[in-house]
Specification:
Blueprint lengths: L1 E5 H8 L5 E4 L2 H5 L1 E4 L6 H9 L4 E7 L2 E6 L1
Parallel strand pairs: 2-5
Antiparallel strand pairs: 1-3, 4-5
Amino acid sequence: MAERETISALVARIGRVPGRIVIADPFVGSQRVSGIYDLQDPIRALQAVVHPAGAQVREISPLLTVVSPL
């Protein structure tokens, strides 16, 4: 559960995906969101976290996931 946490903070909590998660735009990382996220599926949780900020999740390779504006 998150209450007005920054996307950057939530990405750090979700960071259980293999490899590294990079937030390509600092503005996206600074946005605050609230919600309940299922950490058993980190990619879906990540998508749910960034969607309200107008961002997307792209798995570039098994070792690199990028969060960027739409």
